[in-house]
Amino acid sequence: MTDTIGRVALVTGGSGGIGRVVAERLARDGMAIGLHYAGNKDRAEEAAAAITAAGGRAITVNGDVADEIAMSAAFDAVEREFGGIDVVVNTAGIMLLSPIATLDLGDLDRMHRANIRGTFVVSQQAARRLRPGGAIINFSTSVTRTQFPGYGAYAASKAAVEGMTLVLARELRGRDITVNAVAPGPTATPLFLQGKGQAEIDGLAKAAPLERLGTPDDIAESVAFLAGPARWVNGQVLFANGGLA
Questions:
Q1: Which tens digits make up the pLDDT trace of 184-242?
Q2: What domains lie within the chain, and their CATH numbers?
Q3: Helix, strand or coil for residue 37?
Q4: Taking the chain, what is the end-to-end CA distance rounded to the nearest angstrom?
Q5: How does pLDDT run across 153-200, given as a tens digit for each residue?
Q6: Which residues contact 22 (CB under 8 A, 6 or more apart)?
Q7: Is there a contact between 141 and 191 (Cβ–Cβ < 8 Å)?
Q8: Rounded to whole angstroms, what are the CA distances from 55 to 27, 43, 99?
Q9: Burial status of residue 115 (CB atoms within 10 A of its CB: 0-12, 13-18, 19 or more)
């Protein structure tokens, strides 16, 4: 088991939703947090202040995850502040839903940039910089298994994330760095609930054997497991979905 006290984590998309809860959860494990945001500085500063107020250590870093120069600068800032990086969690991403036949190809390009290129850029920096004993945790989705209509482009982007995650785990042989992905099921976040009626939400809540939506805390526990004690879990996709599929 890895001692998480004194370790350093960079969480992309850490200003809200699952990302913020993940950052707070890792901070409770004793990790110093680099909390990345793309656009909402106030919300990111608020999240960092909450971690600090609870006795943790946190700084905010900014940048487009798909921009390799911005992300290199973000990694530099975290390393300067805390002395290195041990854990990188890629929660940043976007979800734009439409049947494949009617999808605006501009939306496809936006998801490709954020979800695929963004994960690739951050994973590339992590592969170059993480200290031995480190962990890279990317984010997929359970829709790669459930195949819900309307999620085709989003599922395709996350299937690409799974592919790069599993390959990177093998490429880092000998470095003592684990690389895994978490694939949440329906989780009650603003991103997930946006545009859905109550009947649809209720139906998704009943779909899993546990008969509820997931919570950001549920997902954060899976991340904390992979970021800390799960040193023999490597090159895997962990489906955190209440048994949905």
A1: 999 988 777 877 889 989 988 998 999 999 999 999 999 999 999 999 999 999 999 99
A2: 8-240 (3.40.50.720)
A3: strand
A4: 29
A5: 999 999 999 999 999 999 999 999 999 999 999 998 877 787 788 998
A6: 11, 14, 89, 91, 216, 219, 220, 223, 224
A7: no
A8: 9, 19, 46
A9: buried
pLDDT at 3: 66
What's the confidence (pLDDT) of residue 94? Answer: 92
The catalytic residues are: 154
Structure tokens at 218: 């549920």
- What amino acid is encoded at 81 in this protein? E
CB atoms within 10 A of CB 42: 9
Burial degree of 215 (CB within 10 A; 0-12, 13-18, 19+): middle
Of 27, 29, 14, nearest to 122 (Cα)?
14
**Per-residue pLDDT tens over the stretch 100-150:** 999 999 999 999 999 999 999 999 999 999 999 999 999 999 999 999 999
45: its two tokens: 């500063």
Residue 1 has a pLDDT of 46
Taking a C-beta distance cutoff of 8 angstroms, is the pair 200, 1 a contact?
A: no
Which alpha helices (H) appear in the chain, and where do they start and end? 17-28, 41-53, 68-82, 105-111, 118-129, 143-146, 152-171, 190-193, 198-207, 216-227
